[in-house]
Amino acid sequence: MYDALQLGPFTIQYILLIYLCSIIATYFILDAFISDSIIKTFYKREYFTFWFILFITYKFSIVLFEPQLLLTTRWLFFTGGQDGFYLGLLAGVLFLIWKMRKESIPGKEFIKSLLIVIVSFTVVFQLIKFVVLSFL
């Protein structure tokens, strides 16, 4: 797999740092490429909330998939895996849809800007991953 960065008792995989850098870079790309409108203020306000919901759901979804781990303290060190990621993605998208309807944002603009977010995150992630992992 990918190597890890050791910070005292904490081990951080490089791929997680690449995700974090991609999330931050995508935020600034959105700020530059989405024109000033209600959708831009919506994404600037809800972008990091979406990622927080995705991360928390991903991290603690192991409890949903393996409830017997609640009797131990080992579940704190596990992640939800691919199923947990998809569950977190679903929770994050449902959150965005709920906020979109609450603020009465047109669906066409929302989907268009969501595609910009997805494409820009994917491109930035792949570029950063290529650069970082080619030097390691």
- Helix and strand pattern: EEHHHHH
What characterizes the major β-sheet?
2 strands, antiparallel
The unreliable regions are none
Shape: flat
Structure description:
With 136 residues, the protein is mainly alpha-helical. It is 72% helix and 6% strand. It has 5 helices and 2 strands. The protein has helices at 14-33, 38-60, 62-65, 81-102, 107-135; strands spanning 4-7, 10-13. It has a two-stranded antiparallel ribbon with strand order 1-2. Helix 1 packs antiparallel against helix 2. The radius of gyration is 17 Å and the shape is flat. The model has no long low-confidence stretch (mean pLDDT 86).
Any descriptors?
two-stranded antiparallel sheet; 5 helices; 72% helix; mainly alpha; 136 residues
Write the layout of secondary structure elements.
Blueprint: E1 4-7, E2 10-13, H1 14-33, H2 38-60, H3 62-65, H4 81-102, H5 107-135
Antiparallel strand pairs: 1-2
Helix pairs in contact: 1-2, 1-5, 2-4
